[in-house]
Amino acid sequence: MADDWQKHDMAFLGGRRLRRTRRTTWSRAMVRETVLTPGDLIWPLFVIEGHNEKTQIRTMPGVERLSVDLCVEAARAARDAGIPALALFPNTPDHLRSETGAEAYNPDNLMCRALSAIKSAVPEVGLIADVALDEYSSDGQDGLVRDGEILNDETVEVMIRSALVQSRAGADIIAPSDMMDGRVGAIRAALDDEGHEQVQIMAYAAKYASCFYGPFREAVGSGGRLRGDKRTYQMDYANSDEAMREIEQDIAEGADSVMVKPGLPYLDIVRRARDSFNIPIYAYQVSGEYAMIEMAAAAGAIDRKGAILESLAAFKRAGANGVLTYFALEVARELGR
Ligand code: PBG
User: Fold this and answer.
1) Is the pTM of this model over 0.85?
2) Coil, strand or helix: which one is 98?
3) Mean pLDDT, to the nearest integer, of 97-114?
4) Is 134 in the pocket of ligand 1 (CB under 6 A)?
5) Which residue lies with its CA nearest to atom 11 of ligand 1?
């Protein structure tokens, strides 16, 4: 039989053999098209009150909410590993959540204290501040609610105030994650008015109404409050053209960079955005994606480290400039070895 195989005429290949460059490690390194580096990784942190306090998140094994002092330590570790920026999300104490979300613009809120503590201790690390009401409101929605309706322009007013206290506290990048119309332009104007011309805006431009955010909502404590869904403002996962319109709009309003979220199930959107726009594009490997990898690995179904690196490489291949990922510190350390 073996002889029969050898006799087969391979002339149709015309000498072309695509496996040739894959034969050896050195050759694979030479033809590699994309490379993941620590500089591609943005690390999200969940902030809680207290001192030297960590709490577990049941649906995100391996991720902990950290008190401000521990966030400062985490920021040092991130800097040492070559991570350029952190994305902060507060778990606001229950008694401070309200229908108006007023805690969002309290200059002494948890988010602002974390921003200023990290900025003064570890100024080399970029700080990305999430702006949305779900972390402060009593009903877990990203906007103000009246008669079951999510109010747009009224919400934008609150977001402006929130972005201003965050910028005063030391935020380098304001990241509105709410999907209200007009918030990027409104925040840009307000920041400029107050002299924060250098504060960037990273717009969660194409953010889909997704079930992959479940563990995050446990992490920030908004999930149990949420009634209904977010489909009147976050995007329908059936749509792609609409994502291009959202991105176009946010760029027109002054976004410095845009985000696609969730990540892996939306790589087509990342690629399409890369081909359509010449602006930095970030993808968010969200909490549910993190949980899927951790839990599949814990069940022995996949190789954990391999799955993490493969999933992050996919974002680079799709054209993302960087990835927000809960694996950031571990991966940055691994890449730096
Ligand atoms: C809230 C916000 C969410 C995430 C980031 N900012 C959740 C939501 O929109 O319900 C999700 C991140 C993740 O799942 O890791 N504005």
Assistant:
1) yes
2) strand
3) 97
4) yes
5) 213
